[in-house]
Amino acid sequence: MVAVTKSVSRDVICELVEMGVTDFGENRVQELTQRASYISERINRHLLDTHLGKPAKPTWHMIGALQRNKVKPLLPWVDVIQSVDRLRLAEEIHKRAQPMSRCVDVLLEVNGGDESQKSGVAVCAASHLGEQIASLEGLRLRGLMTMAPLEADETELRRVFTRVRELYDEICHDFDVGDAFDTLSMGMSGDFEIAIECGATMVRVGSALFEGIDAGRLQPVVDQT
Question: 94-120, pLDDT tens digit by residue?
Fold first, then answer.
């Protein structure tokens, strides 16, 4: 599970780290870099603790749309980029990662619902793009990510998730994308249970995770540093 923390304060993230949550997702580059830096500093200064001792360094996921000019400031802090949907973006990540001696884990974002207003590569083009991305040394293609239509009923949700799961299986068996291809990120707060039933190995949960939290601990504006 990736805890999507865009709606809560850094103090809440600190509590989650102390509780043992290890994966966090942000939609915007600025929020991810600020929060990752803040949490890293607190861990290094031994200001966070668990009953097992020093908490593990969190894994940060970029789950929102990413522009190429934002890749450079993002890379020092991000661990997984889930929203790679075009070759030029993948090439920019590769270009910026090589001087850092990094191999960045990425997911190929697929437009499983064929929605014109959403980002993501079309299902019919995903396999070819996946092979192209996997050939770049600065990236490690870990799998696929999709977002189902927000207003979809259960039947449509299952159709979209099953379609992307079948694509994932096809790529695993028929295309040269490397041995690290093992992740299917599907499902958010309103549909993660259906996504899991359809084969998701990773879900991105925000509002359902923080439902009922004290309103005073929510973060309505961008953290300032």
Answer: 999 999 999 999 999 999 988 877 889
At which residue do the structure tokens 């991000």 appear? 78
Give 35: exposed, middle or buried? Use CB within 10 Å, 0-12, 13-18, 19+: buried
How many CB atoms lie under 10 A from the CB of residue 43?
A: 18
Domain range 2-212, CATH architecture? Alpha-Beta Barrel (3.20)
CA pair distance 160, 57, nearest whole angstrom: 34
User: Where in the chain are the domains?
Assistant: 2-212
What are the tokens at 184? 């299917």
- Alpha-carbon distance of 215 to 71, in angstroms, equals 33
| pLDDT, tens digit, 9 for 90 and up, residues 35-70 | 999 999 999 988 898 767 788 899 999 999 999 999
Claim: this prediction has a pTM higher than 0.70: yes
Q: What is d(CA 196, CA 185) in angstroms, rounded to the nearest whole number?
A: 10
Helix segments in 45-153, DSSP class H: 71-74, 87-97, 123-134
E strand residue ranges, 113-155: 139-146
Q: How far is it, in rounded angstroms, from Cα 90 to Cα 94?
A: 6
Q: Which residues pair with 50 in a beta bridge?
A: 53
20 and 223 Cβ atoms separated by less than 8 Å: no
Amino acid at 109: E
